[in-house]
Amino acid sequence: MDTMIDGLDQDRIRDAVGRAEERTAGEIVPVVVPRSDDYEVAVWRGVGAATLVVLTGVLLTLQFYDGWGLGWLFAPWGVALSVLVAGTVGGVLARYVYPLQRLLVGSDRLDEIVHRRAMQAFVEEEVFDTRERTGILLFVSLREHRIEVLGDAGINRQVEPDDWANVVARIQRGIQNNNLTDGLVEAVEMCGGLLERKGVDIRPDDENELTDSVRTPGREADDE
């Protein structure tokens, strides 16, 4: 996913945003993040799940196993060691194995986390700070394969949330084809056409209020 961010063609995306904004009053802000959260909740759930499995195994073994050689397991230090090892392994797997992380977080919680991160980007990138409230956020969270399009009040008066479905689908296709630049460029072009059809008309004294470049916040932190 980091490679996909590194491969973004900044000039193509910037030019696409500029062309779309020449035709409408919309101010389009593309934002791409490697992920929307560190998912500490998944790590702790991984620790808890692994610990529960081990404790259950110890109890079942106590109940049904009458052989030799496992006496150490039932000693207090043996149980503590087993729990410690299991919890550590569970936490590490939950942190670094994304399918497991996703399972532990749950789809609904994942949607909530990505939406919250998109709202944060909306504020951080000052998408709200336009004269006629015509900012549009194209938010892409790569690890989660989630895309959100958020319009400010001036956009939402004329464009329904469902109207963005094709824009989202176009970015998703770009991610699936490992070509995020194409996906974003096509999505920006679709935004321009949609805004024109919906009557988000450009004013004679229109100014470029928000920079046209794609933002990649969190890229440096994700490298550490």
UniProtKB/TrEMBL annotation:
Superkingdom of origin organism: Bacteria
TM region positions: 42-65, 77-98
Keywords: Membrane, Transmembrane, Transmembrane helix
Annotated TPM domain residues: 115-191
Region (Disordered): 202-224
UniProt protein name: Membrane protein
Biological source species: Salinibacter ruber
Lineage: Bacteria, Pseudomonadati, Rhodothermota, Rhodothermia, Rhodothermales
